[in-house]
Amino acid sequence: MDHKIQLDLTLMPKELKVLLELIKDENDEHIQQHKNEWFMNMDWDYFLKLVMHHRIYPLVYLKMKEVATELTPSHVLQELQAEYKKNTFQMLHLSGEMERVSKLFAENQIHSLFLKGPAVAHDLYGDISLRTSKDLDVLVQKSDLEKVEELLLKHGYKNTQENITLNEKKGRNYHIAYFHPRKKIEIELHWRLHPFPITQPTFNELWERKRNSNFTSYPVSILGSEDLFLYLSVHGARHGWFRLRWLKDIDQMLEQQFNSQQVNFLQKKYRYSHMIGQALTLVNQLLSVKVNKGIKILSKRNSKYLAQAAIFYIRRRTHAHINESKNLNNYHTRYLFLLMPPSRKILFILTLFYPSSKDQQVISLPNSLHFLYFPLRPFLWIWRKTVKLIQL
Q: How far apart are CA 174 and CA 195, in angstroms?
């Protein structure tokens, strides 16, 4: 890693800087030396909001309990402890369902790969209570989608996105959520790792490199180490790293044993180099991680630029996908465009013309006529914008 790279962190609030210090590895002595200064005049309500937003309360609770109990208000520790316990039960609950779903799919000759959740938490942290997960993400072959959906519906799950058009499901979308009302568990069913037009390995390639988690009694398959590193890096990049949990995952991954030459080959093959560089720059600058695994940053200038762009999301607690601010949405669109290699930018623009469920809300067509959404989309887009302006 080139230590001459320096990100501009001047606008980052004190509470966020302290949070970063608390999740660094082997940082206890440094915290002990500076905790009086750091915790003085701390906005504890804002600090708690940051911890919850970034979903790193298990790590923060255990660290503060160990090194800063006397300087932390009791209500802060109590809230962190409550969330830590709640997450532990949630992860155990998800673990049982993950094992049942894996077995159900295998008994019906369906290959499945769990992308996150308890199995990956155990793989990265060695303890499922140290990472948070709100649902189960599972990847299957696209050809198995109808069969998988039938199984999930049969076992009590409900499709939460029934308004997705057939064209959108096959084209611009890459996962569908299913929710079990009684178990209160959501499963995100993926048939692609990332949305189009991001390039990615085929399911068969991923399956050949898979690993079996030793966390459960019944085998649960997860991505191979190199594929998991690439997946977490690209996933974090797509979302602007707006949760520090994802950055901490990369930190933990760098502690794992994986083939750096294979990572270099795959990041070049699938054109992930700028996103890998962004991830490594961020963990180096924010978490003081020395990246010496032999992973190449092929474009240091571009990686630094993208890392600086991600600071915007990290410090603002912003998730642009659900934020209604026009300026923030425009920023995120430009950011996603920057992530694309030149050959993919044209395809990215074309996806903007692909029909969506918003078009179906304007005019509902039967499945046999869904192809008409393509020529109608420009007119439906203008109609939506016109109605929105009238309502202002």
A: 5
Over residues 351-376, mean pLDDT: 74
pLDDT digits (tens, 9 = 90+) for 113-137: 999 999 999 999 999 999 999 999 9
pTM of the predicted model as reported, rounded to 2 decimal places: 0.86
**β-bridge pairing 136-140 and 175-180:** unpaired
Mean predicted lDDT score pLDDT of the chain: 88
Task: Please check the confidence at residue 153 and state whether its pLDDT lies above 90.
Answer: yes
CA distance 91 to 70: 30
Count of other CB atoms within 10 angstroms of residue 179: 16
SS3 readout for 244-301:
HHHHHHHHHHCCCCCCHHHHHHHHHHCCCHHHHHHHHHHHHHHHCCCCCCCCCCCCHH
Give the Cα separation of 58 and 55 in Å (integer). Answer: 8
Are the C-beta atoms of 78 and 46 separated by less than 8 Å? no
